[in-house]
């Protein structure tokens, strides 16, 4: 059927609106990228929109990667992301599998106490005292163990596990399979879309996390990247990264260094999205259809 003039006009307006939204959404990131690639003095002299680097210069990135704390922060963060995400997936999958079983005793009561943790928590002080009494202060386990299971993620994974046909589990049990075998060889392989979503959510959470490290870590050698960047961006500690710069240029270079640190911390996690994008919508929908 040939579209009417009104329908064509509506389509054009929708396209223009979406293009405008994309520009508004994308420009702040492009501004940070252009600023990080700009020559410091030229960037400070720029007024209005920044549509490209104000004099191409990589000095800000050279200063960032000369800072040994940036490299150490990267190493720590990669360790926390990989190990923390693995712990999260295993613990969440086990918890979701247990509460997804139809023959679980007191299932409703268990789910009630699980869901109530999404609304109420002990707070920072009890959490701090618990971590301290468990001997995890100033260790990476203080960042990984307390948040091993996210309640919302477990509920989504539980809903996905419930969509696996019961007949597969019954057939496996007839062949002598245990619950561990059913979980890791049947349920999880059939739930890979939601597993991919969990990997993305947990990995992004660990990558962006800094507050737990701020509370529980005392040794700067164990700081994740985000906490190192917090010191640079908030505490204005860019002087040590400008070796050889004239005092008049330190403020200007410090501004471009801040933008470079934002790109350095953001780019790796953005590169993870394309590999998981095809699973993302499907995994979320699987976890949301059946309650």
UniProtKB/TrEMBL annotation:
Transmembrane segments: 12-34, 78-98, 110-129, 182-204, 257-276
Location in the cell: Cell membrane
Keywords: Cell membrane, Membrane, Transmembrane, Transmembrane helix, Transport
Lipid bilayer topology: Multi-pass membrane protein
UniProt key word Acyltransferase: no
Domain ABC transmembrane type-1: 74-274
Xref: InterPro entries: MetI-like, MetI-like_sf
UniProt-listed Gene3D superfamilies: MetI-like
Presence of keyword Nuclease: no
Signal sequence, start to end: none
Homology family: Belongs to the binding-protein-dependent transport system permease family.
The name this protein goes by in its record: L-arabinose transport system permease protein AraQ
Recorded name of the encoding gene: araQ_1
């Amino acid at each position: 059927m040939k579209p009417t003039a009104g329908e064509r006009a509506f389509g054009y307006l929708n396209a223009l609106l979406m293009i405008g939204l994309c520009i508004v959404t994308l420009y702040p990131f492009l501004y940070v990228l252009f600023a990080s690639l700009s020559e410091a003095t030229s960037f400070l002299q720029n007024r209005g929109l920044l549509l490209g680097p104000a004099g191409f210069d990589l000095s800000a990135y050279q200063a960032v990667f000369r800072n040994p704390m940036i490299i150490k922060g990267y190493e720590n963060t990669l360790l926390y992301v990989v190990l923390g995400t693995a712990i999260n997936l295993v613990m969440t999958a086990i918890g979701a599998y247990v509460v997804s079983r139809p023959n679980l005793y007191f299932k409703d009561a268990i789910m009630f106490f699980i869901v109530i943790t999404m609304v109420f928590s002990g707070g920072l002080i009890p959490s701090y005292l618990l971590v301290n009494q468990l001997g995890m202060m100033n260790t990476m386990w203080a960042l990984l163990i307390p948040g091993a299971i996210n309640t919302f993620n477990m509920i989504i994974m539980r809903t996905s596990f419930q969509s696996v046909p019961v007949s597969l589990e019954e057939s496996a049990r007839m062949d002598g399979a245990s619950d561990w075998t059913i979980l890791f060889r049947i349920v999880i392989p059939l739930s890979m879309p939601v597993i991919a979503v969990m990997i993305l959510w947990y990995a992004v959470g660990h990558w962006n996390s800094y507050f737990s490290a701020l509370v529980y870590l005392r040794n700067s050698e164990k700081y994740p990247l985000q906490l190192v960047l917090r010191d640079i961006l908030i505490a204005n500690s860019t002087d040590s990264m400008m070796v050889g710069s004239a005092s008049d240029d330190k403020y200007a270079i410090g501004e471009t260094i801040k933008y470079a640190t934002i790109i350095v911390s953001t780019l790796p996690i953005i590169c993870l999205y394309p590999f998981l994008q095809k699973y993302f919508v499907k995994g979320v929908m699987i976890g949301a259809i059946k309650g």
